[in-house]
Amino acid sequence: MSPMEGGALAKKRKPTTTMDHQTSSSSASVDNNYFNVSHNHVTDNNKNKKKKKKKRNKAKPKRYSLMSYWELPEYMKDNEFILNYYRANWPLPQALFSVFRWHNETLNVWTHLIGFVLFLGLTMVNLLRVPQVADLLGFFARSTPISAVTNVSRNFISGIMTTNLIELKQMTSQEMEIAAAGHEMGGVAYWPFYVFLGGSMFCLFSSSICHLFSCHSHPLNLLLLRIDYAGITMMIITSFFPPIYYIFQCDPRWQFIYLGGITIMGVFTIITLLSPKLSSGKFRTFRALLFASMGLFGIVPAVHASIVNWGNPRRNATLVYEAAMAFFYLTGTGFYITRIPERWRPGWFDIAGHSHQIFHVLVVLGALAHYAAILVMLDWRSTFGCDNNNTT
């Protein structure tokens, strides 16, 4: 091949090589663009998935788990014999809705919440003067003034659970007005009765709130414990008002002495229990003794009342109910202090059957027994005045 031919061949090959290079570059650019578009598409899909996941997490509330005694913060370690199913540092909404979950406070909440609703119902039916509903529990049935006076306390003790009450559906509106007027003409004040009902409702409701929300934080825990102790004290104080007021209605001096005494003791107890230190588990026995001392103060006016009303046949019925109340309260206090039965079998009674739940049930039963005793006193005092206390 001559030099001229070689040069011509080289010139012919040169454009071809340039074209190929441009085509190759263009192809690589297209590939890169395709890769970038694909990569961006995948990135966008991942971002969308993360956004959707975040939305789902926001829509679905976090379910807080229960923990054991050893995982609790120090301020919540109260009963070392209940080992599991604790709530700790829960937000308020989760604490509120935990009323429908099983944990070691569930029955503590519901026992007193049901008691609160029960006493609220009794308050309403007494305000509306519907004796048939007020006597729903069968403790005592109170006859209206338009019917013959029925000694229902004797019927209860003998086991006869029927009364001579006029059926509500047979009473005309005029008869109902006469019945209500009869109570007013009796000259009996009903406010001590409603003071007791109000104190009981405050105690039961504050107890339920305390057990439900005390898992939120340490400051709220301390506040609710103080309100709970104040509620117990209020229930004890207000329990004294109806019996002392009605029994000593004809001797106001003793009303003032006994009601003033228990009120002073109650105020002292509340002030004492406002100390954060006394709210701890170490002072459980001390708190129980304070409450028990207030209850035992009632022995003095009880003995006095028995002597004053020795010839009154209603005395025995009243004492039976009040003795039942004392039994329920003192037995409940015993469970509260000793922590039986969980002390015997730690971990067995975490959900149901531990001492505080038994204590709650006995408190409600004691309040109901006292309610029955007050109905006996109220019926007696609305029927007979100071001149014939001992008349049947």
From TrEMBL:
Looking at the keywords, is Acyltransferase present?
Answer: no
Give the Basic residues compositional bias ranges: 48-60
Stretch list, region Disordered: 1-60
| InterPro entries for this protein | AdipoR/HlyIII-related
Please tell me where this protein is predominantly located: membrane
Q: Which UniProt keywords apply?
A: Membrane, Metal-binding, Transmembrane, Transmembrane helix, Zinc
Designated name of the protein:
Heptahelical transmembrane protein 1
